[in-house]
Amino acid sequence: MVDGMKTVLVTGAGAGIGYFVAEQLAAAGATVVLGCRDTAKADLAARAIRARVPAARLRWVRLDLADLSSLPATVADLGADSLDAVVLNAGVLLSGPDRRMSPQGHELTFATNHLGHFALVAHLAPILTATPNSRVITVGSFAARSARLDLADLQSEDDYQPKRTYERSKLAQMLFAFELDRRLRALGATSASIVAHPGGALDSLTPSRPPLFVHTTAQRLRGLPAGVALHGKHAAAETIVRTVLDTDIAGGELWGPRVFGLRGRPHRETPPAHLTDPDSAAGLWAASSALTGLDPLRHPSTPVPLLA
Predict the structure, then answer these.
(1) pTM of the predicted model as reported, rounded to 2 decimal places
(2) Which of the following CATH numbers is that of domain 7-292: 3.40.50.11690, 3.40.250.10, 3.40.50.720, 3.90.226.10?
(3) 85, 240 in Cβ contact below 8 A?
């Protein structure tokens, strides 16, 4: 159960793993704010959660991480002077061969998965740091283990490949999360930054949640053989929820599924060295600040110059 009354913002809560994180947190007694770009999907998600958790305490805010200019309004709509946790879950994996851009002119995958969350944390920082023992939970990816960040080409201008760009964006998220925790510790803050990854999560192993989504019997049967190595999105969410609720989990830790990092119950992992490299993280932080004009731990009255 939740220790006290917790309020948690979950980005990308209208689908996939984010939906199940929201459902499980609601079932544990938290007040859950669904952060969704599509408000119709947010409404469907809320209906699906209430069908299983009738007493769920839910709200939603419109959240478009790709558009940095929209984030101040999102935080204002949150209308909160305290926030126990934010789960940085939303993300995109583009399939087309063409490099796409955000409204601010940034490569869309990097802009959504990393820059948007970096900027969101900056806007939420005054609320989070004013809330004792608050948490920033970054949802990383097993794919980041094989990725390497190129600080000279963060936006994949050279040789754009959608899958590699996604992997690098998830690596950027995780580097930022570990660096955020180091900087919070240096400031003496009680807020913590924790990383969780869901392992291998498949739609075909995931139970239906009408009216949000329904999987047919045939789809579920086709997915059964993969259950030996992977799991459904409901099971994948358990690790993330654990990092929100378990007060024994400390800042700077990495949690994932127990069985080869792909499926099973949550457990603590030792992060690969490139995920926690302080030099790469500091370079990424500086570049992200320059691209967004924000710094998550700098007073908002002291803006960061935008990168020309």
Answers:
(1) 0.93
(2) 3.40.50.720
(3) no
